[in-house]
Write a structure and sequence with these properties.
alpha+beta; Hypothetical Cytosolic Protein, Chain: A; three-stranded antiparallel beta sheet; 3 helices; globular
Length: about 70
Amino acid sequence: MIGELLRVVAADGRLIVDERRRLPGRGAWLHPVPDCLAKAERRRAFPRALRVPGSLDAQGVHERLERLAES
C-alpha cells in the first residue's frame, strides 16, 4: 500500500512531492489522485498534518498528479 501513496513535505510555504521519500522533516501521505488532493485542501489537512502555520501552495503537487494521470 505504501508504494501507492505520495509523500509530501512543506518547504518555504509550498508542498513538495518527496519522490525518494527521504526529504527531512514531517511528511504527509497522499493518494496520487486529484480528488484526494482536493479533499485534503478543502479540509486544510496539510498545514495541520505537517504542523505549519497558515496555508501551503500545492501547485507543484497538482502538476505532479497531472503528469501521473497522463502517463
